[in-house]
From TrEMBL:
UniProt protein name: GATOR2 complex protein WDR24
Annotated Basic and acidic residues bias: 453-467
Record field: transmembrane: none
Annotated spans, Disordered: 334-355, 441-531, 566-593
Gene3D superfamilies: YVTN repeat-like/Quinoprotein amine dehydrogenase
Keywords: Metal-binding, Repeat, WD repeat, Zinc, Zinc-finger
WD repeats: 100-142, 143-185, 187-221
Amino acid sequence: MMQHMTLMQEGPINTLALNRDCNKVVVTGRNVFKVCEIKDTGFVERDNIRTGKNSNLNFSCNDASWNPVDEQWLATAATNGAVVLWNIQKSIKLKQETVYNDHKRTVNKVTFHGSEHNMLLSGSQDGTMKYFDIRMKAAVMTFVSNAESVRDVQFNPHQCFSFAAVSENGTVQLWDLRRQDRCEKQFTAHSGPVFACDWHPENKTWLATAGRDRAVKVWDLGYRPVLEHTVTTMASVGRIKWRPQRMYHIASCALVIDSVIHVWDVRRPYIPHASFNDHKDITTGIAWRGSPDVLLSTSKDSYLIQHVIADAERPMEKANPICVTYNSKGSLTSASVDRNSKKNKHPTLPRKPKLESEDYPAVRCSIYVFENVKPTPAQVFRDCAQNYWLQTTTGKSLSEICDHNAVVAANAGRLQVATIWRVVKLLFGFSGLEFAPTSAVASVGSSRPVPVNKEESEPGDSSKDASSRAGTRHQSGNVAFPTQQTGQQSEPLVNGSGSNNSNSAPTSNSNERGVSDTSGGVSEEAESEVEDIDSQIMLSHIASGSHFNTSDFFFGDAEADVLNDFGDTSDSVQGSKNSGETDQQQQQQQSSQMDWILPCEAFQLRHEIKDRSPPPEHFTSHCFAGTRIEAQMVEVEDTTSALLCLPGSSSSLGTTCWSGVSNAVEMVYHMAEEGDVQTAVTLILVLGDRIRHLLNEAAVEHWILAYIDCLSRCRLWNTAALVVKLSQCESVQLRFDVYPTHCNLCSRALQRRGWLCDSCKTITNTCSLCHLVVRGLYVWCRGCSHGGHLLHIREWFARNTDCPTGCGHVCEFD
């Protein structure tokens, strides 16, 4: 019964070698050279060859090989470039028989022939292989590999005169001993240096190689080299050995990092069949002890260990029994081990008999496939790119574009993007202030000085004109009213009946001081001051929330009287630039000049009037005769809230109020950070100059190029060209103004201005239908580079969708 055994040496061990009966093992290293006997109870040291005063570099070994026919001969590869032959059965301490100094650099590998005991082969760092006859004192033949170094050589156990050599340039060479001038076969096996090779003990044409590319490859060398299996490891592989009596099992150890020895089944290359993790440092040598159940190994941790396969770890048993994957269309597939499934009692077809080398237990597995019925992200991207409206493509207004794009995003399942488009509509869709004459949309204006008359005019019983009430309606606390522009010409006063009188006394412009003339009229300057006074009084009342329209609310008798009295006083002046203008023209002019002010509260206390005027009943109608009307400018504190500012207004402190542009800029940056360049670029193209000056030009250019690249990958050439046109980036437009043409045979870009390919020397502008050279307008596809006459291509794509050459490409022809 084999058991696990260990033996510690004085220093690191570089390699080991077994005798023919596998009951003795030699271990060698820089300071170790011993022969041990393997017993059931453990390792027993029989001979220490490195004893005495004559120890030199010949005792420092990189590799060792025991003669499989005559056990007295042992060969070692020294670090000084010598191949040393030892006679183990000598009774004297110095057992060195012959030293071959034919190599110029370090020897990496030595090996004896499997049946001819006099044949010895070596591979060196100098790029040569030497064939020795141990009966002679020098090398018989030299094989040059034309590589920097040879890392391993192995005799073919199935062909007497053949051997394989691997080198650091990644090539494998097959040589015949009877021909030393050139190799029989040579091929590149790995992408880096090859460190080890081993012939299969049963299959005559299989050769396993291992290298720095972290792969173990199995080649079939029957007719030409064919890669049969590949095992991927986690580190560079330094040693490999086929497992005896197992067709597909091979053991490997790493050259660096990993100290675990793995036994692989080449048919399952991702999970080891068994693993041994007894060593604490890099494993330097492995050998099967004539049985598939016992493995010997040495390491730099100075231990010689015998492993038993029954004690090995089974990574397969620790593997996850459930796996999940999905494809590009969003379909999900899961596979799991059905542990609780009952055996099928119904008769089934006879199965293939289990092979001897198949050690994995049979399990029942269930596979579930869930197909995705929703559109994939690529499909959503294509739908949105094809259906989005841009600013200059449709001639629609911004509100219509936002509504359409919101519907497109919602239909594609992108509800967040749809909400963004609705918000953009709210922020910018009404920025033009397209109001009706009686619109009540309000904005907060800046603080203005309010003139207060020293003397109030006599209250009249004039009726309120509808035009004077335009924009003074109170709706749920939102007050809108017009103010006259600075420098507006003064308007004539209305008569006592409240209507314009064409027979009234004309005003005089000669009185520069604005004093009324003898006819009872006032100067033009005085009329302007009166109108400004009345207008500003109305503004102050509206801003304080004390001016209302009685048609909007129902009041008691007392409240209605007070409001009527107040309205009579405030509406004593009616303005009109020209008495011949119609009411509609006045309303249009008034709406174009209006400023909108919204109080912070609907019912706010009036400001305190410091200079109170006497009651109206103390004055008579003749009090204003010959009286000069003077106005005094009084600053009134603007108590409106800056939070109620709408686009285009400014606060009383002189700061710009909230306009929504900053929110749009934040939305663009947020979508770009989330990876949604489609929405970010579309917002930039739709809003244009509204937000373009607040964005980083380098970032905008990067987003546009990324979006164009995505459109090109989806073959949306028309949309990509439109984005280039609307990008307003010179670098982007210069990059995509010129499209390179390619040869339809070799697919290389054409370097000349004509249609001659410099690579394959063919003319590429031939028609795909009539096969004649196109002279004039040539239509070609950017996908497959085929084309032809415009008339021929148009007739073809009227009935077909594929390329007329039969290349299989689905061309797009508009």
